[in-house]
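Hi D.,

Good news: the full-assembly prediction came through. Inputs first.
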Amino acid sequence: MDFFYFGNPHPSHDHLHNMPPSSPEIALSDYLLLDDFLDHHHGHSLSSQSTESSEKATFTDSTHGFTTGATSKNNTNNNIKCKNGISESKARLGPRIAFRTKSELEIMDDGYKWRKYGKKSVKSNTNLRNYYKCSSGGCSVKKRVERDREDSSYVITTYEGVHNHESPFTTYYSPISFLHSDDSTCSK
DNA sequence: CGGATTTGACCTGCGC
DNA sequence: GCGCAGGTCAAATCCG
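Then the structure:
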């Protein structure tokens, strides 16, 4: 089981900077560290497992690896597709990371460009689940976005895989600079 | 017109 | 083997 302190500042900062002036307040509230955990607990337990006091997340090297590693690419290349490519989806793309965000918006700009490829209602959650793929060529990272079953004001975002490219966001915001700066000092 | 989104169909895995 | 649930595909549609 992979453990990650999911404290990558990119999602929150980028999101906040890209919010329109009229957007409702959004606060990162819960970071969920999971891999196989997700397979057994689904959305319902996710919310109950999360902690309300985890606003301060730790930014670690593993998080950096999350953005720059190449394992997902290798996995994809080595995988043998069935005729419609579904087997690719069954192979693990890499670490799976989920976090819960209090937001009225489901789409959070995390610095990457995502293409929506599916929407589904699932039994474990009365809300619809949206499926996204990274739209960067050769990058097979996926994410699922769904509203918390018990509290629809929260959005559960699950990332699966590792980006094999830099976020376009890093052109303007270096991770290093984030590590050494206050939140309040972030600006474009 | 090209890229993004929608949505029904299809596929796979799993439990019974 | 069958049915269900979750995940993905791809044609149709939308939108800038």
